Amino acid sequence: MKSNFKYRHYNFMYVIFFIITFFVSKSFGQDHCKEVIGYYPGWQWYDRDKLVNPETIDYSKYTIINYAFLYPLEDGTITITDPWGDKNLLLGSINWALAPVGYDSEFDLGNPAYHHPNTSLIHHAHLNNVPVMISIGGWTLSNDFPAIAANTVKRSNFAHSCNELVRTYNIDGIDIDWEYPGFTDHGGTPDDIYNYTLLLQEIRDSLDVVEDEISKNLMLTAAFGAAPDKMDDIEWDQMIEILDYINLMSYDFFGAFSSETNHNSPLYTPESGDPTFNCNSAIERLVNDYSVPPEMINLGVAFYGRSAKTIGTPVLHGETTGESDIITFAMDEGTPLYYNILQKMDLFNTDWDALAEVPYLLGKDDLYTFLSYDDEKSIGIKGQYIVDQELAGAIIWEITGDYIETTPGSGIIALTPLADTLKLSLCHAPTEEGSDETYGISEQQLSSAINIYPNPVHTHLNIQVENGLKINSIQVTTLDGKQAINLNNPPTSINLSALESGVYIIRINTSKGVINQKFIKKQ
């Protein structure tokens, strides 16, 4: 039967902090926040001299880690894609005093006995009470799914292989990323719509057996395309019964493959382009047309951008050459991760699409390049959208793009601004901070004595205080610590009409302590 893991979460606290700001927010219980499922691609382990590795990942930012990807073979069995990387990450550093020669080049799942204990991704995640799932498939490894799903023996092989992944790596579930059922470029057929259901049900049944064996709940999730034609090839009524979460890949809507410049992951419909190619339309289609419960859906957020070379001066909705900018963004082959975007900002003019609620970059001078991406502002707005729509949470593709070094190449992680913004915007309880001295009133009492409303706010933010508190001053800052408003002896209604939309922090200095609260500014 279905595990319903999402109703039996691990019980742990999230630690949320902003390194570049002057305050530290209090931790939240998981029941106050949404899911944040971060995909960690094994190949990214090598980047920046293994900067983002099992020991340096900040697990407090995520509720689940999805390790991507393992490879479904033609006979239905599952294998690793990189013997050196996958074994070191999933089982821990190899102990060459025990491992046989050639172990790091064999495409078997590996043997835990050949690895140093307490060094794997799974160990470190579990130490922080974060479950780990293995994601199977992906864009380049989905060609064999149609044949596997269509064959009884191969489906059985696949399900049993999933069990072996659980036993070998001590993971907490399986995520299937078939891109996409019915997609002819990857061998898809019209029968995929039914066969995918059969495959997922067999996996679920098989995991249920292992649950009893290991006395642990195991999740089963799947990633789905957000375009209407991809959704049409899924039996959604069956998915609801089989899966714990539906991970919506609400990005890659537009790119260099499009005839005109447009957004990688617009929240709402842009002025031009297919009106269904945006996050909101995808969510509405799932919920309204296919009756998928919102609390099962994780919205996809992109920690990367998409470039497109333009014919002439770059503009939004201008003509493209059909090619990415693989020179400016050579490291990512034209699809730059967020940290690489930040390093190239001086080459571009920044702009904001108020319709789509996302930023974009336009090349300066003779740089005929358009770049679509997400920043802290758009991520915060998407986080608030997730809360407003009562979705399960978010999936991140992918987490390493947000690990910013003190200086490029320093090897020292300074901050994760997108993950910080997302986590903060997904937490129902406001961030709060008490000073070292609260003058006889507890931090909880201080927080309950101050109420800001409305939130989200369009023009005026009201501050209501109780218990005889006196507000001495307020400061409003962006999430990267830039001060927007500073008022002494402020009124109880603050005019915020001059602020751009986004997520902000208001620091309220009272006669009995200090509180920091999150609020969302909307136009």
Spell out the blueprint of helices and strands.
Layout: E1 13-14, E2 28-29, E3 35-41, H1 47-50, E4 64-72, E5 78-79, H2 83-91, H3 121-127, E6 132-137, H4 145-150, H5 152-169, E7 173-177, H6 192-214, E8 219-225, H7 228-231, H8 236-242, E9 245-249, H9 279-289, E10 297-302, E11 306-309, H10 338-343, E12 348-353, E13 358-363, E14 369-372, H11 376-388, E15 393-397, E16 404-405, E17 413-415, H12 417-426, H13 443-448, E18 450-453, E19 460-465, E20 471-478, E21 483-488, E22 493-495, E23 502-510, E24 513-521
Parallel strand pairs: 3-4, 3-15, 4-6, 6-7, 7-8, 8-9, 9-10, 10-15
Antiparallel strand pairs: 1-2, 4-5, 11-14, 12-13, 13-14, 16-17, 18-19, 19-22, 20-21, 20-23, 23-24
Helix pairs in contact: 5-6, 11-12
